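Journal club side-thread
Mid-discussion, someone asked how the predicted structure for our own chain would compare to the paper's figures. Pasting it here so we can look after the session.
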Amino acid sequence: MIGKPETTEQPKIVYLIYKTFYGCMSTKKEPQLPFSEIWERITQKTEIETQQQLADLLERSQQAISKKKEKDEMPVHYVYTVAKKYNLSMDWLINGKTMGKPEDIFDKMREWAEAEQVTNAELERRLPDFKQWLRNNQ
């Protein structure tokens, strides 16, 4: 049975979903997404207007956020935290298109895993199957 992550600490399930959907993400290093594009969408749909406000939400220093901006890198767990806090779609924050809110994806993954009898141990290996199932069931 797959459970929802209850913390904002780089939830493995989110990492695995985005690794599957955006293929370029390595398991050796946390995915880095384009800060500038995501920042634009964050400021459109939330009351976050400054790097300091984002830093406060993420429990990071303003300097850490500034470094990410300079490198044009935003870790996926930052995106997850913003999406969860403001009930936004991670997909929309990442690429401007909507696949669903994090809770919806977790629910769909849980439904698929129960139907296919996928265990947590098998999850990473079976994510391409989930991706196909999701396409077929939308």
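Post-session note: Confidence is low (pLDDT under 50) at residues 1-11, 23-27.
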